[in-house]
Design goal:
Length: 487
């Protein structure tokens, strides 16, 4: 059922409500990073324990995003969006009451169930509200700006709360925003569904959970268990089998959880890999920065937040600019700027030890903020542009899933590399040398954004997107004609 025609004021209000959901989800992640050292001290946990407080959330989120997107297209986007707000808000309160690390990880997983119903569904609502390409690109630019706001406000808010009240208070801020978004959604957001509802895919969903869960667990626990341990080898084998199962099973379904035909579009495939690379770099960057500023430099949570403010402020400025550029000139220029800036930032830390002086540390943060500010809008716009509107929820969910997979892998890989390098040494003596390979990984992620951005934004790539959209549009019509003509 297509959404009713809305006035400009109503459309902007819908955009604001959707951005509120993104704000609490994004703010939750940035605030949590600042609080990690305080959590580690209270729960007496290691690097792997800190990794799990982040990855337990992003892992569940990544596993359920596509299910949430397709379910919203089927049963109603507003309905799923409201359910997500309720679950996320309640789980945030539970996180603030967690008595130990295990409980916190469990409550973070519940929080992720709600979060999976927010961002991709909100993006689908935006896509169906702003139907003109230029308006949609600008709306997505505003959406990306909210990520910048969360990055700018998150470290400062988190630092103030952690230093004055304690780390548990970082979860309280989700309560008023979540309740306000819920009430406004009930009043102003119209219901919408896909014209052709998609059926559930329990086998595909199970395979996705096995793939992401076993891969992440293997990466995080490899430094402790050893790469050749039966546990790690068994987990890696399970992940490989789940991947092969997905590739074999999904094309045979009429309504797959992951429609592999999307990946025939070079821009869509490029946006997916760029999202994984960019958010892996972000997850690793924030993880390294938090540990360095608080555990090596000995800064308070608030002072660490202030140090990360330049990165966040540049992201805040560049995100809407990127959206405008995508709307007027396409995704190529923003992706090239993003790739160059993120690569330069990684090289600055990996080759020149940027963290050892205030000037180079500041420059490294600004460059990364510039790159990340430009990368988000072209990812989202490319993922949904050219796709049939009936598939908007699934296409947006794949893009959001790619982000979460990237952040999950970034924290897991960077944390594992750092833990292996530090070993039994102290942070102060071993961090710079131990983090060097991690910074080279972040550099590689920036280079992937640059190369793929150039490769998948040209004329050839746009032609593959056009052909893919035609096939996706034609398939339901053929299925309907076959049903109508059947005796």
């Amino acid at each position: 059922m297509p959404p009713p025609e809305l006035t400009l004021r109503r459309r902007m209000l819908v955009l604001a409500i959707c951005c509120m959901s993104l704000l609490i989800v994004s703010l939750d992640n940035t605030v949590l990073n600042v609080a990690l050292p305080s959590m580690a001290r209270e729960f007496d946990t290691s690097i792997s324990g800190m990794q799990w407080t982040i990855d337990a959330y992003t892992l569940v989120l990544a596993a359920l995003l596509m299910l949430a997107g397709s379910t919203a297209d089927r049963v109603g986007r507003r309905r799923i969006f409201k359910a997500g707000l309720v679950i996320f808000t309640i789980a945030s309160v539970l996180c603030s009451l967690a008595p130990n690390l295990e409980s916190l990880v469990a409550f973070r997983m519940i929080q992720a169930v709600g979060g999976s119903m927010l961002n991709p569904v909100a993006m689908s609502i935006i896509t169906n509200t702003f139907t003109k390409p230029v308006e949609r690109a600008r709306a997505i630019g505003v959406w990306g700006g909210v990520v910048g706001i969360s990055m700018a406000a998150g470290p400062i808010i988190g630092g103030v709360l952690v230093d004055s009240v304690g780390w548990r208070s970082i979860f309280w801020i989700n309560l008023p925003v979540g309740l306000a978004a819920l009430l406004l959604t009930m009043r102003y957001v119209p219901e919408s569904r896909a014209p052709r509802p998609r059926r559930t895919d329990p086998v595909g969903q199970l395979l996705v959970i096995v793939l992401l869960g076993t891969l992440t667990y293997a990466i995080i626990e490899a430094p402790t268990a050893g790469l050749t341990s039966p546990l790690i080898i068994g987990l890696a084998a399970a992940a490989l089998l789940a991947l092969l199962g997905l590739l074999a099973y999904e094309p045979r379904r009429a309504d797959p959880l992951i429609d592999l035909r999307f990946f025939r579009s070079a821009p869509f495939s490029g946006a997916t890999v760029i999202a994984v690379s960019a958010f892996a770099a972000l997850g690793g960057f924030l993880f390294l920065s938090t540990l360095y500023l608080q555990n090596v430099r000995g800064l308070s949570a608030l002072d660490a937040g202030v140090w990360m403010l330049p990165m966040a402020a540049v992201t805040l400025v560049c995100a809407p600019l990127s959206g405008s550029l995508v709307g007027s000139r396409g995704p190529r220029l923003p992706l090239l700027i993003a790739g160059i800036a993120m690569t330069a930032s990684g090289v600055l830390f990996a080759a020149f030890d940027a963290e050892t002086t205030n000037a180079t540390l500041f420059l490294g943060y600004v460059l990364f903020g510039l790159g990340f500010g430009f990368v988000n809008a072209p990812i989202t716009n490319t993922a949904v542009s050219g796709m049939p509107r009936a598939q908007a929820g699934v296409a947006a969910a794949v893009a959001s899933t790619s982000r979460q997979i990237g952040q999950t892998l970034g924290v897991a890989v960077i944390g594992a590399v750092l833990a292996s390098g530090i070993g039994a040494s102290s942070y102060a003596t071993a961090f710079t040398e131990a983090s060097r390979p991690a910074w080279w990984i972040i550099t590689g992620c920036g280079l992937a954004v640059l190369l793929l951005g150039a490769l998948t934004s040209g004329r050839w790539a746009r032609e593959t997107a056009r052909r893919t959209a035609e096939r996706l549009d034609a398939a339901p019509q053929r299925a309907l004609a076959d049903t109508t003509l059947a005796p």
